[in-house]
Amino acid sequence: MVETIYEWHYRSERYLRNVAPLTRVGMVYSEQTERNYGGQRWQERSGGHELGMYHALVEARVPFEMVNDRLLDAEHLKPFKLLILPNIAALSDAQCEQLRQFAQRGGSLIATFETSLHDEEGKRRQDFGLADLFGVSFNSRVEGPMRNSYLRLKADAQTGRFHPVLSGLEDAFRIINGVWRLDVKPKSDFPSPVTLIPSYPDLPMEHVYPRVPETDTRELYLRELGDSRIAYVPWDIDRTFWEIMSVDHGRLLQNIVRWALNEEPVVQVTGRGVLDVTTWRQKQSMTVHLVNLTNPMMMKGPLRELIAIDAQEVRIRVPRDAKMEDVRLLVSDKAPEHKIADGVVTLTVPSILDHEVIALDLS
């Protein structure tokens, strides 16, 4: 096996000398939040926010890069259209200003829970450091742990149409809520695709019914500021997704990402299974790596066996400054049939055992 891997690397070396990732999505991670945030019940297991968001992006087959919270300057953020902040609670005034400038340049943001509610030392602010972007203010109350609380999903009252963040959830009248939520006060008008159904008793059985069938309290705040789109989720959607793996939470997160990105992805992969998708540029080529994670041991690490997945339909947007000359599958060593139109290459990868690499030669 080791010999086979090294031989493949030798044959494919020119496609592995990466110049830059081609993803437009960055997920921020914060060592200062990990170091300085905590002490309250709702702040326990804070790593779950990052893990849940990471897992949702992988399931959505969205290529993304990790972004250190100390590298939020314009030069480092230049490749990205969308930044995701999974409860990045501890941010300095300077870091908040860098994110503000990113939005002013047309970048989009997704933030959850206590993002920017604390300074870089972990001291709680009176209000979010990014309150002007979120369009809401902290109302000085954290609610939870919530039991029998739900989210009401509904169409626009005037148009009768569902917001894009509810794609695939149109038939779900309600879904389960998270565990902890912040009470926030909106400072402007927002759409209301997701609203709160408050907690009610879980025992005794004769008391298990919602006291309030629905409210106008939003649990998702969506704004458009010029070319920038801002999504703020005042509850622990990412951590809850990591803990209970609710399909509805995963779908909602994925839809929010697609809405906020608001552009055609560099690569789209459609088919069965779980794939980790990444995209890279080399001097005279670009590659799309497809890592097959479809396995009952996916969440454990060591795999007992590899389980192949069947055909995957792939759409790749060729960089504007390049022309595609050829396409190859580097692992299976095949030249797939493909079509190209309007700068987009479409092809089918017949099967993936563990890893496949689509290589596009460019000129």
Brief descriptors of the model:
363 residues, alpha+beta, Immunoglobulin-like, Rossmann fold, 2 domains, 6-stranded mixed sheet, 8 helices, 20 strands
Give the SSE map:
Elements: H1 2-11, E1 20-21, E2 25-29, H2 31-36, H3 47-59, E3 65-68, H4 74-77, E4 82-85, H5 93-104, E5 108-112, H6 131-134, E6 136-143, E7 150-153, E8 174-176, E9 181-186, E10 194-197, E11 221-225, E12 228-233, H7 237-244, H8 247-261, E13 267-270, E14 275-282, E15 285-292, E16 312-317, E17 324-329, E18 338-341, E19 344-349, E20 355-362
Parallel strand pairs: 2-3, 2-4, 4-5, 5-12
Antiparallel strand pairs: 1-14, 6-9, 7-8, 7-10, 11-12, 13-16, 14-15, 15-20, 16-19, 17-20, 18-19
Helix pairs in contact: 3-7, 3-8, 7-8
